[in-house]
């Protein structure tokens, strides 16, 4: 037992001193004050003008008074115009997008990158992310990259390569793993990192919720447009719900394990409540076990079913105590020799992530979360892979997978018919 405890402690402390990754600003630091002497304008381009894109752009502008939104791009004109009008109402002074810089179509990304923007916000459906991230880095732009960053292993490998190029170029890359920017969670995970509950033995994550949005099919839509407007329900666009949404929970699990990678993964999943054709080909429940070195275990449980109880929490067990994060109830506590509950300052992590992005750009630091965002995304992808197939997989096997869920980025067009596989059946489905 003593040797096992030593192994666990060594395992969890072997990757460095900073648990949250990258530079972490102290709670009392006001970035706007740090910008007071810096009057140069940072021009921002938005790529993907849905709800998340609109929110990210608004948060970016609020985070830096010297930032301006000068360019917008989306495949749908109505999304772009709705986003523009909303942003204009919220912050007219910093929204400076004229009609010539509103780009619509599959090539909108290139037209935004060809403008003189300094920073791009990538908030399209996840399937587009690897190609968009690569193009942005090659164009020399700083990037805010919404999670998840890919839907399959080839996409993850592409993101890792682009992240390496971004580092070589000194570009800043911040991901949309928002929990990493929440002050209460930073404080709790720092206490865990300092041994407050001893050596971590297992982590349990659960996120149960109900139904989500759906857009009724219109006669004028091609099949491609219908799927793009309902992208969440097609695994080639979203990666399945475990990749698109539950990746936040898995990122917290990874954080607890100091961002080390699992050895092997097994799990199950299926579709019991969301069974109609309109829900595409994704699952509505998953249960996955992640095995790490020294017999450490991480477990993820989730479902999306109406009429069931809801929760969103992470429980972390150590050799000398216990820690919990209840996202819905805003509980952040450790129970070691004594109980500790977070009672420090609060923040809006959606804004903080942009504040720290802009701060790194202005300081010339090249903050780069590329590897972190790729690995956390892959945790969700391998969870989907074992759930779909019913097979146990090693991390190496999953990372080497050549299975690509959708068409190549260059092949997108409105009349393209994507061959959407049927709902996967564990034990039968092979291409995962």
TrEMBL record:
Residues 42-174 form the Gfo/Idh/MocA-like oxidoreductase N-terminal domain. Residues 188-322 form the GFO/IDH/MocA-like oxidoreductase domain. GO terms for molecular function: nucleotide binding. PROSITE patterns: TAT. This is Oxidoreductase domain protein. It comes from Cyclobacterium amurskyense.
């Amino acid at each position: 037992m003593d040797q096992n405890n030593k192994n666990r402690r060594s395992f969890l402390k072997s990757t460095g001193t900073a648990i949250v990754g990258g530079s972490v600003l102290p709670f009392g630091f006001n970035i706007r004050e740090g910008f007071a002497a810096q009057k140069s304008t940072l021009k921002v381009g938005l790529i993907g003008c849905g709800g998340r894109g609109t929110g990210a752009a608004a948060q970016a502008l609020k985070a830096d008074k010297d930032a301006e939104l000068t360019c917008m791009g989306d495949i749908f004109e109505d999304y772009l115009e709705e986003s523009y009008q909303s942003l204009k109402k919220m912050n007219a002074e910093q929204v400076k997008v004229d009609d010539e810089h509103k780009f619509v179509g599959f090539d909108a990304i290139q037209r935004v990158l060809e403008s003189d923007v300094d920073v791009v916000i990538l908030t399209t459906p996840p399937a587009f992310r690897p190609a968009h991230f690569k193009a942005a880095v090659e164009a020399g732009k700083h990037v805010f990259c919404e999670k998840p960053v890919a839907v399959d292993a080839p996409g993850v490998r592409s993101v890792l390569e682009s992240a390496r190029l971004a580092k070589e170029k000194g570009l800043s890359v911040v991901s949309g793993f928002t929990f990493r920017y929440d002050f209460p969670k930073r404080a709790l995970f720092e206490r865990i990192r300092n041994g407050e509950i001893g050596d971590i033995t297992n982590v349990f994550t659960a996120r149960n919720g109900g139904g989500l949005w759906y857009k009724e099919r219109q006669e004028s839509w091609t099949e491609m447009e219908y799927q793009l407007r309902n992208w969440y329900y097609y695994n080639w666009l979203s990666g399945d719900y475990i990749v698109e949404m539950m990746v936040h929970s898995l990122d917290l699990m990874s954080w607890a394990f100091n961002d080390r990678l699992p050895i092997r993964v097994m799990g199950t999943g299926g579709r019991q409540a969301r069974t109609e054709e309109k829900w595409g080909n994704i699952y509505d429940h998953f249960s996955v076990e992640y095995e790490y070195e020294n017999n450490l275990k991480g477990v993820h449980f989730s479902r999306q079913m109406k009429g069931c109880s809801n929760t969103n929490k992470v429980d972390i067990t150590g050799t000398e105590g216990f820690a919990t994060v209840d996202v819905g109830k805003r509980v952040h506590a450790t129970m070691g020799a004594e109980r500790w509950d977070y009672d420090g300052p609060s923040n809006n992590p959606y804004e903080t992530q942009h504040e720290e992005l802009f701060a790194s750009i202005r300081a010339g630091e090249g903050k780069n979360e590329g590897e972190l965002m790729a690995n956390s995304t892959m945790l969700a992808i391998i969870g989907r892979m074992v759930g779909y197939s019913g097979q146990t997989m090693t991390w190496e096997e999953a990372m080497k997978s050549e299975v690509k869920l959708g068409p190549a980025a260059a092949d997108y067009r409105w009349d393209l018919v994507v061959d959407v596989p049927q709902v996967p059946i564990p034990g039968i489905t092979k291409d995962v």
